[in-house]
Write a structure and sequence with these properties.
single chain, alpha+beta, globular, Pseudouridine synthase, two-stranded antiparallel ribbon, 11-stranded mixed sheet
């Protein structure tokens, strides 16, 4: 599902053929990224797991790298539920979406093993520079363990990311002297491993960096688009996560709908890839107990969940 008929881009993501002129839209005042106060939206809650929709800009937990920042998802959820919580995985501060917490240390340990053994399935939305030449592909590019340090001398870790182009658009913003507008793409990305900044570094390697990425993106492009839209953020969203419940064994499909800032893009409703269930389990399509308590709802029919195959996302 794409808009426009693209000419094939070169490796930089720019088109090889000239484009027609466009009238630049006026720039709006840039609104600094702020995190809404108050309780975190709960996507799933039972006696063992709590899953929240993390807003962009909120830390998962306090860290020495942001020693001045006291606000974090862990502290918010702990106060919200009135009990200790353990983060199961990481999301970068600028990334929004599905974030899983365990309510017991042993559950956190079990899920940590599941993540390490690749028994979970995660899908992200990313807004990137340029139009990819293909509609889908897999990035096979080893990554250094620590993205904050020079790669030289570090162990290089295996890393694969599947991606698919959902939409190609043009924005009436001049970010290159040779072109009257800017080409962007909306991608669905599925990291096979879970290296730090894996999607961000892989898309930079593909020459299609994520918009708003201060570390791995293009500063002038980020600033121009932030001024055009009147807001700034890292345009990366953790859309879905599938995992086997560590206690009940049910296969959970957890989804965080994109925020209103994503409405300008055509994001397919219920975009869930047909990932492989962990061995020995059957997909239950369980969305979990409601945040107010009570029993889990009955499993919806396939028509209700409408998982999309890769072919339907073209």
């Amino acid at each position: 599902m794409t808009s426009h008929t693209p000419s094939l881009p070169d490796a930089s993501g720019e088109a090889a053929s000239p484009r027609s002129a466009a009238t630049p839209a006026p720039h709006l005042p840039v609104v600094p990224q702020t995190v809404p106060p108050g309780p975190l939206p709960l996507l799933y809650l039972d006696d063992h797991l709590a899953v929240v929709h993390k807003p962009a800009g909120l830390l998962v937990h306090r860290t020495a790298l942001d020693a001045h920042e006291d606000d974090a998802a862990l502290q918010r959820l702990r106060d919200q539920l009135g009990r200790p919580v353990w983060p199961v995985h990481r999301l970068d501060r600028g990334t929004s979406g599905v974030l899983v917490f365990a309510l017991q240390a042993e559950v956190a340990s079990q899920l940590g093993v599941a993540l390490a053994e690749r028994m979970t399935h995660k899908r992200y939305l990313a807004l990137v520079r340029g139009w990819p030449a293909q509609d889908r592909g897999t990035i096979d590019h080893p990554l250094a363990r620590d993205p904050e340090l020079p790669s030289a001398g570090q162990p290089m870790l295996e890393a694969h990311t599947h991606w698919e182009c959902l939409q190609r658009v043009t924005v009436p913003v001049v970010t290159h002297t040779q072109f009257p507008d800017t080409r962007l793409s909306l991608l669905a990305c599925e990291p096979v491993q879970g290296r730090r900044h894996q999607i961000r570094r892989h898309l930079k390697h593909l020459a299609h960096p994520i918009i708003g990425d201060a570390n791995h993106g293009k500063g002038p492009l980020n600033r121009a688009l932030a001024a055009h839209w009147g807001m700034q953020r890292l345009w990366l969203h953790a859309l879905t996560m599938r995992l086997q419940h560590p206690v009940t064994g049910a296969l959970l499909t957890l989804e965080a709908p994109p925020g209103p800032e994503w409405e300008q893009w055509t994001v397919p409703t219920g975009i869930v890839s047909a990932g492989t269930a962990p061995a020995g389990t059957a997909p239950a399509n369980i969305t979990g107990r409601s945040p107010s308590g009570g029993s889990p709802p009955a499993a919806p029919s396939p028509e209700a969940t409408s998982p999309l195959s890769p072919q339907s996302l073209r």
